[in-house]
Amino acid sequence: MLEIEGLSVRYGAVEAVGNLGFTVPKGSITVLLGANGAGKSSTLNAISGLAPSRGRIALNGAELGGLPPEEIVRRGVALCPEGRRVFPSLSVADNLHLGGAVHAKGEELARRTEAELDRFPILRERYHQKAGLLSGGEQQMLAVARALMSAPRLLLLDEPSLGLAPKVVEQVFGLISGLRTQGITILLVEQNAERALEIADHGYVLQSGALVLSGSGRELAESPLIRDAYLAG
Amino acid sequence: MDFFLQQLLNAVSLGGIYALLALGLAVVFSIVALINFAHGELMTVAGYVLFVCILYAVPLPIAVVAAIAAAAVAAAATERLAFRPMRRADPTSLMLTSFAVSAILKVLFQNGISARPKPVPLPPDLSGTLTFGPVRLGTVPLASILVTCLSLFALTLFLKRTVMGKAMRAAAEDFQVLRLMGIRANRVIAAAFALSGMLAGISAALWVAQRGSVDPLMGFVPVLKAFVASVIGGLGSLSGAVAGGFALGIAEVLFQAYLPDAALPFRDAFVLGFVVLLLLWRPDGLIPARTGRRS
Amino acid sequence: MTRTRRMLTLCTAMALCGWAAVGAAGAEEVTIGLATGQTGGLAPFDQPSLAGFRMAMDEINARGGLGGTYMVTLDIKDTRSDTGATVQAAQELVAAGVKFLITPCDADPSIAAGQISQAAQIPTMTFCGTTPTITDAVGDYMFGSYPADNGQATLLAQHAIAKGYKSAYILKSPDSAYTLRLPEYFAEVFQKLGGTVAGEGSYSLGQQDFAAEVTKIAALDPQPDVIMTAAYEPDFPAFLKALRGAGVTAPILGSDGIDSPTTTGLGDIANGIVHTTAGFPTDGSPLGEFYAKYEAVTGAAPETVYVATGYEIPYILDAAVTAAGTMDGPALRDALANLENVPVLTGSVTYKGTNRMPLRAITLVEIQGGARVPVETATPDPALVPAP
Fold it and tell me: Is the CB of residue B216 less than 8 Å away from at least one CB of chain C?
């Protein structure tokens, strides 16, 4: 579904990603692993148009490279950014509303909101509260729900479990598996390699902006490199 | 006591105009981190439209609407021509750009219209006075208070109820993520400028009603007051701008009313001293802006 | 016979000299420099002054030049109303060898530029600077042309006394010499003539909020007989509206700064205001004819009397050049300083016996029903005019 070839992302003189290539098959959960600064977030930012990049980024054969973020989300690629980044002074309702505002109108917008509130019942309870007053886990739910309001074909998730209590982390990974069953393709960036590889169909390991390892979730989970680097501790 | 009540009313009337002015700056600053010093010239544009309308005997309500619309269009035009090409520039370059826009507009007014003030005579019934018990209020100051309240109410509705209003509030907190929602940055920024222009137009109508004329350099003092007010309130914070506007208006009027005669020529120094104290107490302003911006 | 022959010889010689002089005159070209604010804060004053100045200079050139001898080229520099830029422009003009320099309608840049031309012995005149200290601050080459603040104040004080006003409230702003000193000169003369000052108020230029100030005036008991101020746009209209809004009915005396269409556009509340002006055009008067001529030439009537006062300057200069017979600095300076009763559009101008701020007629006008009505035109009594 998503094909990436020769991708590089530079911030001034610093190359965050160099000549990266990988694919995300339709209907799969694909995970990008790597240490801090390996270039995972930069890759997601490049795909969603936030970071300037070179190389080929194609969605179902159509080039996305060079498009602004507003256009990329209209083509069905939504990013749920690292750190959740909900709009803190806006209510939960307004956060969701903005997530879907340009993609659906009127009844369709109301239907999508209802669907997300069904998916995340906690958000229904918090519906009129300011997003800034929500707990970390609730904010993560809101961030995912907000991204889903655009009804994406491909959902990019950047560190969704970061800073969450273990119980909430379980909820989040359960949710991600559930999304796959609804036909949403997922590209996931995670620090929690063990849990991520459990639900992933494919995985890629990045080091200093370049691909060093790839394979199915199970293969990677058993790979000595991964075991040493991410799973041992 | 009557004297105090009267001065309080005076302060609220002046503070209201300052609040509208500061809001105009804050709306743009909250979204693009630009202190738009050409805001005063948007007022001048509105003033000249009022002048032309009244010259041709256009009814006052239509003239005011035309003036507000003209300021909004002028604001959007400066955004498109001057600020959009500078979108990726740092805040200092943006501010210098706004100085340039301001200077160019002033020279255009001076050489294209007239260096001399143009009279904007208002209908005579607008110079009347209303008496409420012990206090008197001129029609224009009364209109200032009403228009300020109405504008604040309408602005709040717009920001809370409409998609564009919500998008502008969201943009102030995290513009990147707003773009990830598919909302076009250019539209939000253009809307913010147009809104700022409308606020400039409304305050211009009140400002011109006080002074009875429009001249090319008219915008300088109001934009200065707006800048001070929005700094007091917290740069980029909309409720802060309103609070700052009223704080400045009240300080100006009360110092003017209660300073001894010998100190009166230094009133502005006292007002600015008060501003410095406020900022020492609250360095980020009365109601600081909340920015969700991250690197 | 011998006597007759000697007379004849003398006459021939004089004729020859005269002819020679005329022959030389055709070749005599001089440059006059103008360092004035055509953009920025002084443009409302310097732009119309320049328009009138150029028109008069063209007329004088067309009839043979200054003193019938000197064809004038103008070197016009815009100072953007910046004092530093005025100094730089003055330096460039002096270096270029101008014979006469014009400076802006404001004391600070005029004094700064005048100090440069003073050192180079080039006679210099401010367009419509009214501060009477301009000339003495620079020296004997610096001249004013416009009715000075102390003269205007004297006429206003005399008028107030004649109207029977006993007490006056004065409103001044420390932000400019004009808005500060003119009311102070007024108070000085008014008190000398037996009036009392009931109170003083202060405002900031451009502030245009007078609610607090007028509330204080309204609280005065007894109310003053008259209120005098040198406030001008945008402050004056705002002050007037606030004052009448607060219920104060005392008559108002103003200065030439409110000689603009804005004041007449204020409606009924402006009725009864008396203010000074450099001149008021009436049908058939020289100023009235000039206004008609200017409209015929440019298609629009002058927006302000500054066009006329700018127009007068080349004719004042022409009188001095004619008297001096030269445009050399020292001789021209002396000729200017000795001019007496030079007829101009608004009356006559005299420098002899002054500190080079001219003694000239000032007109008082009253606003009635959206129009100005002349009250009187008079030259202030030098014995009453306060020292600058």
Answer: yes
